[in-house]
Design brief:
The protein is an all-alpha fold. Among the domains are: 73-141, no CATH class; 146-172, no CATH class. Helices cover 84% and strands 0% of the residues.
Length: 198
């Protein structure tokens, strides 16, 4: 989706389109770019025996509730960048004071320092908080739901990767069943040998 968006915005000669592209990319990154964290959280929370099947289920549930997630991502985007801007404004005065005491012509460096500090706070504190909110929204929206077979079909038709995920889920079940059979045979073999020796 992001690549398609970038291609369209590069072709269209509309002024200011690069800003719109940046905003849409940030929105897509927050709404669908963090799906791997959501899948991992789902696997850990459900304590799954088959991680491939759990990943498949998590994706289907995400698709079923896409409207709610996109709305949540929009609010989180506003919150993330709004809070970052507020932090930037709060850091502008101390950064300016530091630059004031530095020798030489560092007048514009206060703005740069405040921007770097605000971006560092965003990356270290604000974004992890946004991911936590996203996970909380995911588990709240999907509570008590089961995967809809229609959504499974849609995703299987739209994505080769989803079909590969389904295949790995089936292979995991088969390999686990084979491993359990070998383990059961191994544990029963010594017992059989003992009864024969008696």
């Amino acid at each position: 989706m992001t690549r398609l968006l970038m291609s369209i915005t590069r072709v269209l000669p509309i002024p200011g389109m690069d800003r719109v592209e940046g905003l849409l990319r940030a929105f897509l990154r927050l709404s669908v770019g963090l799906i791997d964290e959501v899948i991992l959280a789902y696997i850990i929370r459900t304590n799954s025996d088959n991680p491939w099947k759990s990943a498949q289920t998590a994706l289907v549930l995400y698709g079923q509730n896409a409207k709610g997630f996109l709305k949540n991502a929009a609010w989180l985007l506003v919150f993330t960048y709004g809070l970052t801007f507020l932090v930037f404004l709060l850091l502008l005065a101390p950064a300016g004071a530091i630059v004031y005491f530095m020798p030489g012509g560092w007048a514009s460096a206060g703005f740069l320092f405040a921007l770097i500090f605000a971006w560092a706070i965003k990356a270290s504190l604000v974004e992890p908080f946004a991911i936590t909110c996203l996970l909380q929204a995911y588990f709240k929206l999907t509570a008590g739901q089961s995967p809809d077979p229609q959504w499974e079909e849609r995703l299987a038709q739209a994505s080769d990767k989803f079909r590969e995920l389904s295949k790995k889920a089936g292979e995991w079940v088969a390999s686990n069943a084979a491993d359990k059979g070998v383990a059961a045979a191994a544990t029963s073999a010594p017992a059989t040998a003992e009864t024969k020796s008696e």
